[in-house]
Specification:
alpha+beta, single chain, 313 residues
Length: 313
């Protein structure tokens, strides 16, 4: 589908209007489909042939597409005019930052560190993006220990955003066909740097009660980029446990709470921060116990494997 993501500068100006549909390109694709069949929808090079890349390129592209939208200590910026899978986050499209994606990105990085251990062949476009992202992250590693203030956070975003824009502009214009061999050491360096930033961001989103922020909101001003926290949600807890970053003791923190905050079992957490009316999180044991002691109202019957059903009118 010939959607075009706006340049980074335009996204900063209006993060609610970041995607356009290229009608001219769409017409060309339909003509190509009529002549070639389904392959006409795939990416073609300047020579008219299909663009073929290595598995390493596909894996790294998935990573880099997220990294160019990294907001230090905030999450992954959802710049594509849509939230994630959770309908409760519809209001976050445009300025929403996903800690959930950050957690799963950490898991993905660990996977790539075990897979990409040799030199890889990449398109010149992606190889240039890999180098640019690595350079940006390397320049700002000194801020990882103390956290990112508004100006430094904005500087990282600017560097990554410009790199992402440069890549998209080259690809939208058409792949050149040049292939570069990227040394295993360069790939490893990128993965190590990215993991440092991702894990730093996840630690920055740990709350005093052991829970993790799920989503944040990005506030942009002349002073830089601020991260505004939202209420706690279930998704962040699932994501941080799935990330593999926590040890056994840390994984128990949400249930135990902290000396300053009651444990999760003693303080229900809202699932829907936008409305503030979501159901409370209850320990599974309490939930099962309540369900077991509840009687069905008249006219309602229980069916095996399904929730109670009302008779049809």
């Amino acid at each position: 589908m010939p959607y075009r993501i706006a340049p980074y500068a335009d996204i900063l100006t209006d993060p609610y209007k970041t995607i356009t549909f290229d009608h001219e390109r769409h017409g060309l694709i339909l003509e190509r489909v009529a002549a070639e069949g389904a392959d006409g929808r795939l990416v073609h090079g300047a020579d008219g042939d299909l663009v073929r890349v290595t598995l390493a390129e596909k894996l790294l592209l998935l990573l880099l597409a997220k990294l160019v939208n990294l907001v230090p200590d905030g999450g992954i910026w959802m710049t594509t005019q849509r939230p994630e899978w959770n309908d409760a986050n519809n209001a976050l499209g445009g300025r929403g930052l996903s800690v959930v994606t950050l957690a799963y990105l950490r898991r993905y990085l660990v996977l790539l560190q075990g897979l990409l251990t040799v030199d890889v062949e990449l398109s010149s476009e992606l190889a240039a993006l890999l180098t640019a992202v690595s350079d940006v992250l390397l320049r700002h590693t000194d801020a990882l220990a103390g956290g990112f203030g508004p100006e430094r956070r904005q500087a990282v975003m600017d560097g990554l955003g410009v790199a992402g824009t440069a890549y998209r502009e080259r690809v939208y214009a058409g792949f050149g066909g040049d292939l570069w061999t990227v040394a295993a050491g360069d790939v490893t360096a990128l993965l190590d740097l990215a993991r440092l930033f991702v894990e730093s961001g996840l630690r920055a989103n740990r709350r005093s009660d052991g829970l993790v922020h799920s989503y944040n909101v990005l506030d942009l001003s002349a002073d830089g980029a601020e991260v505004r926290r939202l209420a706690e949600m279930l998704e962040g807890q699932v994501a941080i446990l799935s990330s593999g970053m926590l040890g056994a003791e840390e994984s128990l923190a949400p249930a135990r709470g902290s000396p300053h905050e009651p444990a999760l079992s003693g303080r229900p957490a809202q699932l829907h921060p936008v409305s503030g009316q979501g159901p409370a999180l209850l320990p599974r044991a309490q939930h099962v116990q309540r369900r077991a002691g509840r009687r069905l109202p008249p006219g309602r019957r229980a069916r095996p494997g399904r929730g109670p059903q009302y008779p049809r009118a």
